[in-house]
Design a protein that fits this description.
Blueprint lengths: L22 H21 L2 E7 L11 H14 L2 E7 L3 H17 L5 E7 L2 E4 L2 E4 L12 H4 L1 E2 H9 L5 E7 L13 E2 L11 E5 L16 H10 L6 H15 L57 E2 L8 E4 L2 E5 L14 E5 L2 E4 L5 H9 L24 H15 L2 E4 L2 H9 L59 E8 L20 E8 L15 E5 L7 E3 L1 E4 L1
Parallel strand pairs: 1-2, 1-3, 3-7, 7-9, 16-19
Antiparallel strand pairs: 4-5, 4-8, 5-6, 10-11, 11-14, 12-13, 14-20, 15-20, 16-17, 17-18
Helix pairs in contact: 2-6, 3-5, 6-7
Length: 552
């Protein structure tokens, strides 16, 4: 629920003079203050409009009506009063959106609004349009009178002056409607939402999502699932939705995480309560994966040496120079992991563990790190720091380098795979079979944590809880995704051949940076040494952390 972020602090005790407060009077005033502070939560009104359009004459869609019904029922279960519209023409869409604005205005100053649209959408000149049923749209000029401008939806909601409005556009499906225009393109464009509004998309800007083969689209099904789970704040819901859709569509769809979420205070919960899987240490449960014995522990190589440049500095391991084949060495990999190419690597130092909360907190205490990332209730100390963006990781690197005089940095993507393989050519540094004896990862089906065998943690595990690889590094597979220096590229075509970071060259997207290693809630195939993932450089999640490198 939305509630006031302020907390009461009892006044300084003063027992002298005419200003001394009677204890009974203070108790009464304290009670009144508590009642006042709780008013926002108790007065919160949740109001939603859900629209599902699928009966398009030129390009019908199967699932929007089903998706809208699913989201309607889920929101009702979360305490929303829901208007539900199916296969609406423009007039019906406009009237229902205007009614949503009026409902929010009459719902009180603490009302929460939500708008969900499932159907076709198109962008033109950077503006997003939601397509009604029955519109005659032949050219770009037809969009304004025949479609609904998504920015206008936001304005209708904003005028109520309520603290939070959520707009969810499951409208990025491949637009096969003919629109004769040079600027009208597939997918939707990013939207700049005002303070107090959050806009979420079913996929990233300029790309398309899919209607799905089942009764519901992957996005709507995941959204309904995580909205219904207690104790997940809005950001956590959308994070989990993105991971599940990503896993189930094999990277065909990557939902966009709204940057507005990182400024949302206080947090919003669809269903308040205790999260189902947030205990730091969970009881060991019988294994549900392969009954095969774990592979043998690789013996540490004799060249491994360690160093710490200060008491609060991460421990570093010396990595030998060499060359390796980078990319998918099997036949099961994805296009993003190809083509396989040989890369030479110069000797350097790499973090023995992922950077921990204790190490991050030292940076914060010294003024070098300006953010205090949440531990999601799982504990700080020697757990890997989470909820940090690539930008945050770079701030830590800058502080540590300045404080020690050493050249700290993030690993390049090539360096990361080099140390993850540790001289092997198998899927994992211990062999070709995933094992909870050697890594903290999730269920075979994306995206839930799992505790089994040595892996006692549904969420993050303390660093060093699993055996090191042959080069002395822990948790390169699983626990948290690790930021690297590189910008995202869709394949290795044109990649550097010297192990350096791949940035602007070759059409890279530097707004997104490469993540490696998988995390506590990902399936085994995402933990492979060759697997690559990406995320917004400004985004932060409870499955993202980082590991350091240091140059001599």
């Amino acid at each position: 629920m939305i509630s006031s972020a302020r907390q009461l602090s009892p006044p300084q005790q003063n027992n002298a003079g005419p200003y001394a407060m009677n204890h009974k009077l203070f108790a009464v005033l304290l009670l009144l203050a508590v009642l006042f502070e709780s008013t926002p939560a108790s007065a919160e009104t949740r109001i939603a409009l859900v629209i599902g359009n699928g009966r398009y004459a030129a390009a019908p869609l199967t699932n929007p009506v089903n998706d809208a019904a699913l989201i309607r029922d889920t929101l009702k279960g979360a305490g929303f009063t829901v208007r539900h519209v199916e296969n609406a023409d423009r007039g019906a869409m406009v009237r229902s959106i205007q009614a949503l604005g009026r409902d929010l205005a009459s719902g009180g100053r603490y009302s929460v609004g939500l708008f969900y649209f499932s159907g076709h959408g198109v962008q033109s000149d950077g503006r997003n349009y939601l397509l009604p049923i029955g519109g005659q749209i032949d050219t770009e000029a037809d969009l304004l009178p025949e479609a609904v401008d998504a920015d206008w939806v936001l304005k209708q909601m904003e005028q109520a002056g309520n603290p939070l409005n959520i707009v969810i556009l499951d409208a990025c499906r491949n637009n096969t409607l003919a629109v004769a225009s040079k600027s009208a393109t597939k997918g939707l464009a990013r939207m700049v939402a005002p303070v107090g509004s959050v806009v979420a998309f079913a996929t990233d800007s300029g790309t398309v999502a899919y209607d799905g083969k089942g009764r519901n689209s992957p996005y709507a099904a995941a959204l309904a699932k995580f909205m219904a789970e207690p104790g997940l704040e809005l950001k956590a819901v959308l994070d989990q939705v993105a991971l599940r859709v990503y896993g189930e569509t094999r990277d065909q769809t990557v939902p966009q995480i709204p940057v507005q979420l990182y400024k949302l205070t206080p947090p919003f919960y669809f269903r308040p309560g205790t999260p189902v899987q947030t205990a730091g240490l969970n009881p060991v449960v019988p294994p549900v994966t392969s009954s095969l014995p774990p592979p043998p522990t690789p013996a540490p190589a004799p060249f491994v040496s360690h160093t710490k440049d200060c008491e609060d500095c991460p421990e570093m391991v010396r990595i030998p120079g060499g060359a390796f084949r980078m990319g998918d060495l099997s036949v099961i990999g994805w296009d993003r992991e190809k083509p396989v190419h040989e890369v030479p690597i110069r000797a350097f130092w790499a973090g023995k563990y992922e950077v921990t909360f204790a190490e991050w907190d030292a940076c914060e205490a010294a003024g070098g790190c300006k953010t205090r990332p949440s531990d999601s209730g799982w504990g700080r100390g020697n757990r890997p720091v989470i909820n940090v963006s690539w930008d945050d990781a770079k701030a830590y690197v800058q502080w540590l380098s300045g404080m020690t005089g050493k050249a700290y940095r993030l690993l390049t993507e090539a360096e990361w795979e080099y140390v993850a393989r540790a001289g092997t050519s198998t899927e994992y540094s211990w062999g070709n079979t995933a094992s909870h004896e050697y890594a903290n990862y999730g269920n075979d089906k994306c995206c839930e944590g799992l505790a089994t065998g040595r892996d006692q943690w549904v969420n993050t595990s303390p660093v060093g809880s699993f055996p090191a690889n042959a080069w002395g590094l822990h948790d390169v597979h699983g626990n948290v995704w690790e930021w690297t220096e590189d910008c995202w590229h869709d394949s290795y075509r044109g990649a550097p051949t010297d192990g350096s970071a791949w940035t602007e060259a070759g059409g890279g997207n530097c707004a997104r940076r490469v993540l490696r290693g998988g995390s506590w809630n990902n399936s085994p195939d995402l933990q492979r040494a060759a697997f690559r993932f990406r995320s917004s450089a400004s985004g932060a999640s409870n499955y993202q952390g980082f590991r350091l490198a240091r140059t001599d």
